[in-house]
Amino acid sequence: MSGSGRAAAATRREPAPAVPVTGRRESSLRRLRGRARRAWDRPLTAYYLILGSSFLITLLGLVMVYSASIIRALQLSLPGSYFFRKQLLAAALGAILLLVASRMPIKLHRALAYPMLAGAVTLMVLVQVPGIGVAVNGNQNWIEFGIFQLQPSEFGKLALVLWGADLLARKQDKRLLNQWKHMLVPLVPVAFMVLGLIMLGGDMGTAIILTAILFGLLWLAGAPTRLFAGVLAVALVVGAVLIRTSPNRMSRLQCIGASELGGPTDPCWQAVHGIYALASGGLFGSGLGASVEKWGQLPEAHTDFIFAIAGEELGLAGTLSVLGLFAALGYAGIRVAGRTEDPFVRYAAGGVTTWIMAQAVINMGAVLGLLPIAGVPLPLFSYGGSALLPTMFAVGLLIAFARDEPAARAALARQRAHGRKRTAGRGSGTDRASRSWNTMRRRVRTRPSGER
Asked: How far is the C-alpha of 356 from the C-alpha of 326, rounded, in Å?
């Protein structure tokens, strides 16, 4: 073999240089990030996130309501599934509202804004009428209809979002939002009127959520920093006065971070037992239905503190799953609000996202001992039809807005066209097979005996 041949053979026998492990990992991470980015940028990502996360939160909430409410129902001499059946009925009605809201055109949503606000304000006024309004846990914010109770302030959240979004959108179309008086009037006075009606009943938690919705709308409208800070300062001063003048609210504020009990009459009883429930859950929980705190130690186990029972029975894995679902829902809402060119859709989607996320943070923060107990349910999760129905309608709004994006409409149209082609293909194949079978039947001679 010549020298050049030996050199070529040696070159062929030399192994290829090894790729460093770190380099392979970095390339894998880059590919993974690229795939994730492409998945997030798809037109229907927000649509599927809203639909899937809201469905899973509601489904998991039904399971936890059944588990957390059995003992309370038996203590009241009721069937163990009493609260679950009422929540299941509310979820079924809410699913109908969600479907209706997701199919309604945006113009109809805007047309409903003023009637919905007028109806909610009327009901909140009726709450304060003796003989009509009902007090629950010291707050008179309910109207009783037989075995059902309605909390009009929950519908006031939805009404404020729709009305505020329609108002700001019309003013933006007329280029009036660059003037502070048009940005504040009549949005802020009407919002304060609704807040006043709620505070007459003593429901500070719902008032905080409405305040968050108001600030969310002002922020989306581009309120100047000094104007935003001025409204925030007024709200903080009013809130401080209301808390200072109420011993009940002061005791709730003092329970932040509490971890020890002084006795059964301790005002921090509920907050501390919520921490006990979370602490005893561990990584994967004690098992569905195996909670100890729901046996009378933890008040409102199936309503305001259902997140604590979820932590006790499902553990850290369950609570992180709930947090992840709410994070997905919030991200999708922000994406819908940020990508639309319709001002009404931007304000309404931002208002709904602010409402659900603020309420979730306040509820979970109270259970974790990081915030005072505000008495607000965990959206789509806690027991209560009055809170579930308007929230599911609001989720239907987000679904309608996500479907209305131009790219999403085009993607859905392609999916429907593809589905029709597949159906037509299956149908044509069946027709061809039927015609072939009939032709074969005609070709077969029939014997006198009737046999073939």
From this structure: 9
Distance CA 48, CA 403 (A): 10
**Sheet containing strand 148-150, strands side by side:** 133-136, 139-145, 148-150
**Residue 351: pLDDT band by 50, 70, 90 thresholds?**
very high
Residue 442 has φ and ψ, to the nearest 5°, of -70, -30
Name the nearest CA neighbour of 390 among 204, 210, 133. Answer: 210
pLDDT digits (tens, 9 = 90+) for 102-131: 999 999 999 999 999 999 999 999 998 888
C-beta separation of 313 from 67 below 8 A = yes
Distance CA 68, CA 274 (A): 13
Q: Whole-angstrom Cα distance, residue 5 to residue 57?
A: 71
Q: How many CB atoms lie within 10 A of CB 14?
A: 8
Q: Amino acid letter at 444?
A: V
Q: For 366, what's the count of Cα atoms within 13 Å in the CB-facing half-sphere?
A: 24
- The conformation of residue 17, written as its DSSP 8-state character, comes to P
3-class DSSP assignment, residue 139: strand
DSSP secondary structure string for all residues of 7-43:
HHHHHHHSPPPPPPHHHHHHHHHHHHHHHHHHHHTST
Report CA dihedral (275, 301, 356, 408) to the nearest 10 degrees: 110
Please list, residue by residue across 317-336, b when 16 or more beta carbons sit within 10 angstroms of its beta carbon and e when fewer do: ebbebbeebbebbbbbbbbb
Which has the closest alpha carbon to 152: 187, 197, 212? 197
Which letter does DSSP use for residue 1 in this model?
Answer: -
- Check: CB of residue 159 under 8 Å from CB of residue 112: no
* pTM metric for this prediction: 0.85
